[in-house]
Amino acid sequence: MAGHNHGHTPAAWTGVTIAFIGFCVAGAFTVAANPLGFWVGMVIIVLGGVVGAAMRAAGLGLPKAQHSLPQPQPQPTAQAQAQTQQ
């Protein structure tokens, strides 16, 4: 996986950072027993996903071509290998 560029884009970093802030807000208000603050944190988490998707749509994410995994090449059969060795 290290060879892939998974998540190393401005869209990914921004979306995850906003979601992390929302997680911290929701967690703090959960400990404080404040349901309104908890739900504000949940809205911030969703906002992080929306912002990340919008930035990706604006071209700040991975290009579409890099999203697909490389297709495995067919392995030659034993008969084909024997023919190439002759």
From TrEMBL:
Membrane spanning stretches: 12-32, 38-58
Disordered: annotated segments: 64-86
InterPro entries named among the record's database cross-references: DUF6704
Classification via NCBIfam families: HGxxPAAW
Protein name: Integral membrane protein
Keywords: Membrane, Transmembrane, Transmembrane helix
Compositional bias per record (Low complexity), positions renumbered to this chain: 76-86
Keyword set includes Coiled coil: no
